[in-house]
């Protein structure tokens, strides 16, 4: 979505000073009431989400009860699934014509860019082949290693030292708790495409 937050309609009363270049002569003391959201406004993300939710509902899409960023709609051809992340939408379906119809309807309501087949999304690289879709996080994993100071380390087959015992009563020097939590959080995100490190990350957590 282009300029997505500008589509949100405000419920609260919000006033702003007259912007430079648009000040009304002899009425400089007046303020303006916003009818729609602006970037930088605290209410803007929520207002946009409400607007998008209502728009998808008007097209017959149902919000998932357990994952509020996922919408579905049954069609004669099958099922259309829409994933939402702020102002980015991923759409997939059993029928190409349903995807095309969805895009046309959304373009009639909002200014949009069609980026084509999904190749990269939230740190996940997507490779779409004829027989399979491959997900990987190579670039993300590399950045995580660099951030952790392990960019030059050699790769190994096992993701954890054998018979490792972690204890809260360790005599080792204290580490920066925030940095440790950040690294573990990064590893948890990496498990989306690396289920082989699930146990280790859980142990480190």
Short account of what is shown:
The protein is an alpha+beta fold and 205 residues long. Helix content is 29%, strand content 18%.
Outline the fold blueprint.
Elements: E1 15-17, E2 31-33, H1 44-58, E3 62-63, E4 70-74, E5 79-85, E6 88-93, H2 96-109, E7 120-121, E8 124-128, E9 133-136, H3 138-147, H4 177-190, H5 198-204
Please explain how this structure is put together.
This protein is α+β, with helices and mostly antiparallel strands and 205 residues long. The protein is built from 5 helices and 9 strands; from the N terminus they run ββαββββαβββααα. Helix 3 runs antiparallel to helix 4. The radius of gyration is 24 Å and the shape is extended. The chain starts with 14 loop residues before the first strand and ends with a helix.
Distance between the termini: 36 Å
**Helix and strand element order:** EEHEEEEHEEEHHH
Count of helical stretches: 5
Binned strand content: 15-25%
Round the Cα radius of gyration to an integer and report it.
Answer: 24 Å
- For the largest sheet, list the strands in their spatial order: 3-4-5-6
Descriptive keywords:
3-stranded antiparallel beta sheet; 4-stranded antiparallel beta sheet; 205 residues; alpha+beta
